[in-house]
Amino acid sequence: KMDYYKDRAEMYVGEDVSPDFYAWVFPKCDHVAVGTGTVIDKKGIQRYQQGIRDRAKPRIEGGDIIRVEAHPIPEHPRPWRVKDRAILVGDAAGYVTKCSGEGIYFAAKSGRMCAETIVKNSRQGARMIDEADLMEHLREWDGKYGPTYLVLDLLQKIFYTSDAARESFVELCEEEYVQKVTFDSYLYKTVQGNDPVGDLKLGWKTLSSLYKYKNQKTPDPMRTLA
Length: 226
Known about the structure:
Elements: E1 10-14, E2 18-28, E3 31-36, H1 45-55, H2 57-60, E4 82-83, E5 86-87, H3 104-121, H4 131-159, H5 163-172, H6 176-188, H7 196-214
Antiparallel strand pairs: 1-2, 2-3, 4-5
Helix pairs in contact: 3-4, 5-7
């Protein structure tokens, strides 16, 4: 069955797999990773783990469970990231993004940017840095990536709160403009778009889609994966 996942990764949304995030199945060498995440209902994680296994059952049935593990998702930036000559970066600073759950890039990038600021302000080690030097790094970091965290936080609060909102999110993802903006934003790690006409159309599409699914009495049948 690994052939099915050779060039494929799956993302699942729904109250059965997570109340505020998404679930996934993606290939890792000779096996697949099957998982889910939640911030608001940590005690229910086992129920959601079973939910994603049930949803993906036709494609993973018969496989052996190699390992079961769980880790906290540090997606809330810490209110205090600098104290004297100490600074938090990466997961310690809560730099995992909302909505997508990406953290590896931002962990490495924040460490590199902080190190570059320290090297520059210490004049190659000729002077001792202080809190003001580290605050300079934070201003640079927040200026570059703050909008990304803000937009992803907003998207999660809008689209991951109910199954009706999730259906709207899935419908929007069928739009070519949404796919392009999503791909570019993921590639460059900053919010892309900057097309006023496209953004207006997307805004209207979002509102109409949310209204449609919120007022839909009978939910659409479950989509069948190819």
